[in-house]
Amino acid sequence: MTDLTQYLKRTFNIIIYMVTLHSMVRSDIQPYPDDVEISSNSAFGEVKVEKVSRTRHKRGAGDIRSTLVFDQKATIILAHNQARSSVSPKAADMLFMTWDDDLASMAQEWAEKCTWEHGNPERNPKPYSSIGQNLWAGTGSPSVNGAVNSWDNERRYYTFDTRACQSGKVCGHYTQVAWADSHKVGCGAARCTKNSPFSASTWNYVVCNYGPAGNYVGRHPYTKSSTSCSACPSDKPVCENNLCKPSGVCGGQTCFNNGKYVTSVCMCNCTTGWTGVTCQQSLSNHITASLLIPIVTFVLTVHGFGRM
To answer: Mind telling me which Gene3D superfamilies this protein's record contains (predicted)?
Structure first.
């Protein structure tokens, strides 16, 4: 019985260790706060690739991977649509922008590579023939809101009629944010401890992908008009806050598993344990699976020991 007791004790400690380790990993997934350092813009496929912008600000440090929670996704959508609804001159065809999980997944994977250059995982970007991308890097508290605002602030250097950017400035992030046809966005974020574009070794990284891509050579980001929404497409006929939206509540999307629909961003705010566009993907399955292996092994091993 002494051997059995010691065996059970050792196995129990292993299980506690595994549960603790799992909890530590989960606690590393943190929300992201606020500000900017460097921005870079690019689009893929047959679209124009803008020069890398090296605009600097300052801040602190971190070094853990992070994924975006609902509030941060909503902040990204609100910030983009605020920028799009306030363009000057007014836009006849500016589409309301919504979240895309596939674009976000690609952006998150790229952010976690901690490489300060444009790119995406080798993945089919369907239904888009090409996707655009804005990058943001900072050495302090990262901010999805700060990133979008820094891109939007480039509007002061952009002249719509001539499609020209003030000499020595960069406007490509703004024109991607304000590109009328780019109606989907998905972003990822990471704290990095390698490949820093700064003197500091630790830096924060935000990547946003856009579908379809903007910044086509020789084209304005949107159609100029004296009246907002004067040329909305037939599938987005409703004008709300100067943006073209589908009829009904965000086109009639439904949230499952008690998820709440947030109409201001046309997204489901899922309850604990659920994720996905309509809250039908279970997070608990992943947690259970990671804990189930040591527990099942424990039960089977003890059973075998008892038979000896």
So the answer is: CAP
Tokens at residue 80, please? 């983009």
- Write down the pLDDT at residue 161: 97
- Taking CA atoms, 78 is separated from 45, 170, 251, in Å, by 27, 23, 18
Element (H, E) at 185: strand 184-192
β-strand partners of 65: 190
The pLDDT of residue 65 is above 80: no
DSSP 248-306: TTTTT----TT-EEETTTTEEEPPTTEESTTS-EESHHHHHHHHHHHHHHHHHHHHHHH
d(CA 34, CA 29) in angstroms, rounded, equals 17
Question: SS3 for 223-252, per residue?
Answer: CECCCCCCCCCCCCCEEECCEEECCCCCCC
SS3 98: strand
**Are the beta carbons of 248 and 99 closer than 8 angstroms?**
no
pLDDT in tens, 217-263: 999 999 999 999 999 999 999 999 999 999 987 877 889 999 999 99
* Amino acid letter, residue 240: E
As a whole number of angstroms, the distance between CA 180 and CA 297 comes to 55
Instruction: Report the candidate in 40, 83, 55, 74 with the shortest Cα–Cα distance to residue 215.
Output: 40
Q: Which amino acid is at 48?
A: K
Read off the tokens for 153: 């602030």
How does pLDDT run across 269-285, given as a tens digit for each residue? Answer: 999 999 888 899 888 75
- Does residue 265 contact residue 243 with C-beta atoms inside 8 Å? no
